[in-house]
Design brief:
Helices cover 0% and strands 49% of the residues. The protein is mostly beta strands. Strand 9 and strand 10 form a beta hairpin.
């Protein structure tokens, strides 16, 4: 059974930065594209960023230029570096492996002064 564990969330002021981490237990981790989703209160969960097994990345328009997804296959880790955070980035952030329908428990990011 795959386990995904997110960490790194917290309270940050607008314009600040955070780095989220996701630890995966999946065997053959390297073959899976990895995703970061987020869900704000009262809104649907949305895809924020994706990284393929080969390292190709894709981002939602709302975070392009501010968020960077990366992975360390040796450590089975996925990261989301977030800069220039805005209030509208406030959400619970989830790590995901879509093909396995695997989700972490989420980590709360709150951007507020």
């Amino acid at each position: 059974q795959v386990q995904l564990v997110e960490s790194g969330g917290g309270l940050v002021q607008p314009g600040g930065s955070l780095r989220l981490s996701c630890a995966a237990s999946a065997r053959m981790f390297t073959i899976y594209p990895m995703n970061w989703y987020r869900q704000a209160p009262g809104k649907q969960r949305e895809l924020v960023a994706t990284i393929t097994s080969g390292g190709t990345t894709n981002y939602a328009e709302s975070v392009k230029g501010r968020f960077t997804i990366s992975r360390d296959n040796a450590k089975k880790m996925v990261y989301l570096q977030m800069i220039s955070l805005k209030a509208e980035d406030t959400a619970v952030y989830y790590c995901n492996i879509r093909s396995l329908d695997a989700w972490g428990q989420g980590t709360q990011v709150t951007v507020s002064s």
